Amino acid sequence: MCTADAIEKSASQLIAGHLVAFPTETVYGLGADASNPEAVRRIYEVKGRPVDHPLIVHISSMHLLDMWATDIPEYAIKLARGFWPGPMTLVLKRTSEAKDFITGGQDSVALRVPNNPIALSLLRSFESKGGKGVAAPSANRFGQVSPTSADDVISELSSFLMDGDLILGGGKCDVGIESTIVDCSNAAPLILRPGAITKEMLEASVSLSEPESTLSDIRVSGILEKHYAPRAKVTLDQIPQFGQGFIALASFPTPHGVIRIASPRDMVEFAQILYQSLRKADLLELQEVVVLQPVGEGIAVGVRDRLLKASKGR
Ligand code: TXA
Ligand code: MG
């Protein structure tokens, strides 16, 4: 676990232009000073991610929104008040602080206040040293499964990090899948990526715009096919065969000769264990893992979204 000293040191390393991986309630992030082009360039290098993919800027409080975003609609303020700190990212019209190297040249910037004590302490300490925001994609190599523990980050990235970069440990992530992304750059909010802040939760405070046409001009890397994928082939909603891995709700029994990888009790736990279970399939060197997807609304939508992409393979 990590001490106040470790957090303080990590904040200084961010200010000095180094990378710091840190826990959030969703997945671990690979952080860099969002105002430092060289530090942000290293995120892309370490992840092996195409440079035109925009990053989420993390801040400790919605009071810092104005630094990064302008023309903020009333409904976005309402969402920020209702769900921050939390697993929700808002895409807003950018200020001049959000440079092209953060936004992928788009006129909008993605912002999030994470709900994890280590992440929040790190952000506050960074801000107290003059930092404005921490850019952090999930701390995995591009296209692979997001890390939900410090050990996952170490196995994904340690050979790509340099002296001065740090990994802050903070146990397992509570949510397990990435934040809900809401585009707030138009007249009505639009969900770009489903997550733990569900459509139903958002609709309780704002009217959502229907998904369709607007998606085309926005680049969300999670929308690319072949994402969140382990080495094992992921097959959805089939009867598993002898020697295959199997992930399903606890209520589904394991057929004979099938390797049960996880038995979550409900859809919330399904999200929590999803990525670690896909990693486990690789650790066991399985060729194929069958997943019975959770049905219904709520976070199950986010789980199915990630599984669909995982099933497209690497
Ligand atoms: O839960 C999360 O969101 C985690 C933790 C670390 O905060 N972060 C995360 O980052 O998932 P990443 O880079 O793996 O995914 C960020 C997504 C990408 O799909 C990116 O395209 C989208 O956010 N994004 C960033 N800026 C955007 C913008 N201006 N407009 C639309 N999408 C944007
Ligand atoms: Mg990612």
Give your account of this protein's structure.
This protein has 314 residues and is an alpha/beta fold. The protein folds into 2 domains: 4-203, Alpha-Beta Complex (DHBP synthase), CATH 3.90.870; 233-311, Rossmann fold, CATH 3.40.50.11030. Helix content is 30%, strand content 16%. The chain has helices spanning 4-15, 37-47, 65-68, 74-83, 100-103, 117-128, 150-157, 199-203, 267-283, 300-310; strands at 20-22, 29-33, 56-58, 88-93, 108-112, 134-135, 166-167, 180-183, 190-193, 233-236, 245-247, 259-262, 288-291. α1 (4-15) crosses α6. The model is unreliable at 214-219 (pLDDT under 50). Magnesium ion (MG) binds at residues 137-138, 146.
List the SSEs and their pairings:
Elements: H1 4-15, E1 20-22, E2 29-33, H2 37-47, E3 56-58, H3 65-68, H4 74-83, E4 88-93, H5 100-103, E5 108-112, H6 117-128, E6 134-135, H7 150-157, E7 166-167, E8 180-183, E9 190-193, H8 199-203, E10 233-236, E11 245-247, E12 259-262, H9 267-283, E13 288-291, H10 300-310
Parallel strand pairs: 1-7, 3-5, 4-8, 10-13, 11-12, 11-13
Antiparallel strand pairs: 1-2, 2-6, 3-6, 4-5, 8-9
Helix pairs in contact: 1-6
The chain binds threonylcarbamoyladenylate and magnesium ion.
Threonylcarbamoyladenylate is lined by residues 24, 26-27, 29, 53-56, 89, 91, 103, 106, 108-110, 112, 114, 136-138, 178-179, 181, 192, 218-222.
